[in-house]
Amino acid sequence: MRTKLFIVAALLAALATPAFAPFAFAQTPRENVRGTIAKLAGQTLTVKQRDGQTVNVALAPNYTVRALVKKKLSDIKPGDFVGTTSVPGKDGKLHAVEVHFFPANLNIPETQSPWDLVPNATMTNAHVDGVAKAASGSMLAINYKGSVAQVLVDKKTQIVGPAPTPASAADLKPGRTVFILATKGADGTLTAASITVEKNGIKPPM
User: pTM above the 0.85 mark?
Assistant: First the structure.
């Protein structure tokens, strides 16, 4: 029984990772919160969203704060597990808005779902098959459940990975950009166990 409880606890901890959790428990109402911090008061974070509206997010007692660092296309290697937000272009190809590396210690399933970062976006978590030169950038081949998708990465694509130094509540300062995968209660209240925050000028692109 203790072993089973440990496995469940480990899975729940992994599912708190941004861009991964929304595909794990589809039956749990989720809401992506993006915007800038208005204030942090105790365990309540107030965020001014992109539409100008403010929302309050109740933070779990043991909430975690994550930061990101910039990565380059050359950092992406075959076998890497990445998440990418892509949109269909006028050329008929998928164009990557952003690519992010996951923490290396997480066991994440391959997933794909509509994503609300920009209109018509899709989030795909998949293994990298390879990277090849293209006429207007580079073509990233990602293997989603045995089907290889070709995603164009260009100079506009933001590429990020986990910061080597953990962030903390001290980084939740007014004006900084955040991305929060919140759980939405039946009464509309938002709660979260994890926050990705802007640090050293690197904003969450998810």
Answer: no
